[in-house]
Amino acid sequence: MGVQQEEIHELLFSRELGWQDIIYDLINTEQLDPWNIDISVLTDKYLSKIQEFEEMDFFVSSKVLLAASLLLRIKSEILLNKYIKSIDEILFGREEKKRYEVERIELDEEIPELIPRSPMPRYKKVTLKELIESLNKAIKTENRRITREIINKNALRDSGISLPNRKFNIKNKIKEIYERLNIHFDKNKEHKKISFTEFIGNDREERIFSFAPLLHLDNQKKIWIEQDGHFNEIHIWLNKIYMKHNPDPFVDLKNGENSNDNLKVVSKD
User: Fold this and answer.
1) Burial class of residue 29 (count of CB atoms within 10 Å of its CB; 0-12, 13-18, 19+)
2) Which helix (H) or strand (E) holds 52?
3) Is the pLDDT of residue 162 over 60?
4) Do residues 70 and 76 make contact, with C-beta atoms less than 8 angstroms apart?
5) Which of the residues 36, 43, 111, 129 has the least number of beta carbons within 10 Å of its own beta carbon?
6) Helices 39-55 and 62-80 sit at what angle, rounded to 10 degrees?
7) pLDDT by residue (tens digit) across 221-245?
8) Mean pLDDT calculated for residue range 127-136
């Protein structure tokens, strides 16, 4: 029979249709034993129910689909193995136990064969409570993992840049760039400055790794970096060439220092 039209309407519009609702409904309609659930039957019926909802154009949430994949994993594990310990062991893996070396003891007499009194069960019984708790734990764990992935990807996208995974020596890079600048201006004496793009090129990684060394050289007063406006092209001068062809950029600061010195002298008199 399955869920009737009125029951589907109630599930859909009274609250969000959840994977627990589908399982509880299947336990009732298929008359499955809640203390010993047949996972194979439940999984097949669960998938059929999802297909039925999709054919009726009902919205199926991601949690409902995730529960379906977890049920399939449990079913396949049970079919492939003769014995399982628990649902948690299937969904979250088996804990490795410490192994101990057992000392071999040899006996002269023949050891009688031990026969178990009752046959071992094929697999442990799965109760409804155990199934719901394990699925709920697995879904929460997966949701947390997905949330972390989304946060990390959003942070990377918002940063606007992904730094290449390449190690380099900043000291050697500074030396290399300064030598290249000197060679360039020695060969092209008519050039007073060079653009960042012309000097470094368009390779994204090289532009990233070269920018910081240029800032260090500028701070050391070996070069002069200028930019007419935000996001405009950056131009690079050797500091001695810039000072030769441009007014002293620190003249105001120097005048300010001289004025302060004069003030100190006057106040002293």
Assistant:
1) middle
2) helix 39-55
3) no
4) no
5) 111
6) 150
7) 899 999 888 888 999 999 888 888 8
8) 85
Of 195 and 131, the structure prediction assigns the larger pLDDT to 195
Averaged pLDDT of the chain: 75
pTM: 0.42
Per-domain residue ranges of the chain: 5-93+124-159, 170-268
To which H or E segment does residue 145 belong?
A: helix 128-159
| Both tokens assigned to 131 | 């199934």
Greater model confidence, 1 or 90 = 90
What angle (nearest 5°) sits at the alpha carbon of residue 161, between those of residues 160 and 163? 160
Positive or negative: CA dihedral 234, 236, 240, 242: negative
Please check the confidence at residue 103 and state whether its pLDDT lies above 90.
Answer: no
* Cβ contact 3:29 at 8 Å: yes
CA distance 59 to 53: 7
| Residue 88 neighbours by CB distance under 10 Å | 15
Predicted confidence (pLDDT) per residue in 41-86, tens digit:
888 888 888 888 877 767 777 888 888 888 888 888 777 665 555 6
CATH number, domain 170-268: 1.10.10.580
Helix (H) or strand (E) holding 143: helix 128-159
Give which of 175, 250, 189 is closest to 217, Cα–Cα. 175
- Which residues contact residue 81 at a Cβ distance below 8 angstroms, ignoring those fewer than 6 apart? 123
Residue 89 confidence (pLDDT) above 90: no
CA dihedral 61, 63, 66, 68 (to 10 degrees): -70
Tally of CB atoms within 10 A around 265: 9
- For the cut 70, the answer to whether the pLDDT of residue 264 exceeds it is no
